Amino acid sequence: xxxxxxxxxxxxxxxxxxxxxxxxxxxxxxxxxxxxxxxxxxxxxxxxxxxxxxxxxxxxxxxxxxxxxxxxxxxxxxxxxxxxxxxxxxxxxxxxxxxxxxxxxxxxxxxxxxxxxxxxxxxxxxxxxxxxxxxxxxxxxxxxxxxxxxxxxxxxxxxxxxxxxxxxxxxxxxxxxxxxxxxxxxxxxxxxxxxxxxxxxxxxxxxxxxxxxxxxxxxxxxxxxxxxxxxxxxxxxxxxxxxxxxxxxxxxxxxxxxxxxxxxxxxxxxxxxxxxxxxxxxxxxxxxxxxxxxxxxxxxxxxxxxxxxxxxxxxxxxxxxxxxxxxxxxxxxxxxxxxxxxxxxxxxxxxxxxxxxxxxxxxxxxxxxxxxxxxxxxxxxxxxxxxxxxxxxxxxxxxxxxxxxxxxxxxxxxxxxxxxxxxxxxxxxxxxxxxxxxxxxxxxxxxxxxxxxxxxxxxxxxxxxxxxxxxxxxxxxxxxxxxxxxxxxxxxxxx
Length: 495
Fold this sequence. Notes:
Layout: E1 8-13, E2 19-21, H1 22-34, E3 39-42, E4 48-53, H2 57-66, E5 71-72, E6 82-83, H3 99-107, E7 117-120, E8 134-138, E9 144-150, E10 157-159, E11 164-165, H4 169-182, H5 190-204, E12 217-219, E13 228-232, E14 235-240, E15 247-248, H6 249-261, E16 266-269, E17 275-280, H7 285-294, H8 303-306, E18 308-310, H9 315-330, E19 340-343, E20 354-358, E21 366-372, E22 382-390, H10 394-409, H11 413-419, E23 422-424, E24 434-438, E25 480-484
Parallel strand pairs: 6-7, 7-8, 18-19, 19-20
Antiparallel strand pairs: 1-4, 1-5, 2-16, 3-4, 3-15, 8-9, 9-10, 9-11, 12-23, 13-14, 14-17, 16-17, 20-21, 21-22, 24-25
Helix pairs in contact: 1-6, 4-5, 6-7, 9-10
């Protein structure tokens, strides 16, 4: 969580699952307005962010608490629970994971999690699967979930060997959190950390007997267009995105009033820092149009502007995003089936098939560009594409990487998506390979790319680089290990 204005304090209002009743949101906005707040933001974990002047902070906290609002004075201490409910009956139809299931699970959380928790359907690609520490992913069997544990400050995923029953999700979450945070250093050896965690949780918390029967099926990535009025069955849904990430309090208040007037019970927040309102009757559309017109809200931005993630409350990252979007737009670069993330901090759980991140400790502003090996943002397997890139050259390199993606695809992405919208992990396997990987930051040296910024040509074998340094953390070659590339694209499993 970043703020460039030292006179402001950032507090978060957690909206579990990204679901907020219109009346509750109106109460939050009323308290914010009384504290002199004119604009609010949404976070990438579907929470509401309020920037308040420091002298008014205490009064705002008291007002929100009195209204029964789940407020977090330290946003990073208790992160919001993310869910894919926002996309249900909008971008896809779940087989068994309905609104009531999400809400029943969320209502059973009787503690404030310190770990990031995701509740997501594996068939959708709108909400990221693995950006939490505890990633519950809906199984094919009704009311059961796969669990993938991502150890804090690592990209390592451990596949829990048991499926988790819906009612046990909060219980297992609490048990894992107690064990994992009690002595985090005991899980430093990531090659055995998953088994250690499972054994310790099993000793204190009975686990279900249903073992994971087969590989998790992951869909090919496609970000749906999430703006404007769209039809879903006999009703409409409305998606609202703001280019500056700011929603005025007055606009949201009017939006809530129309919800209450038209019996639309709730609003949903998205990981893309946007809003979605479901269940709008076509006969009521004029009321919603009037609110958009009154506040001059545009709801038809270009798709290549919507597929970006930027850290919360980060003006520098947002400005860079606008620069790069303009460049890609001017050059007419295709970005379908890709999404981008800009990282200015080392430990921010952003979602992207292409990552642009700052390189600290450099005399001049420089960046590095990474991508997931298969360009699916749900993968945790990153490959370094370029480093030490000047800001004015970022757009050119991004365009080159986009072209590389489409060369690898080999066929129109729309055709691939329509022919095979969902593939089991073991059906999109790649041959196993031993690759050098940094033990500190998990950067992989790929012979195919080499490292031109360090004078290493593509095709240079690892054994010819005894003096190599990690391009990300500058660890020496002796700190690299031979790592077997996962046979399942996008999953790093310590089993």
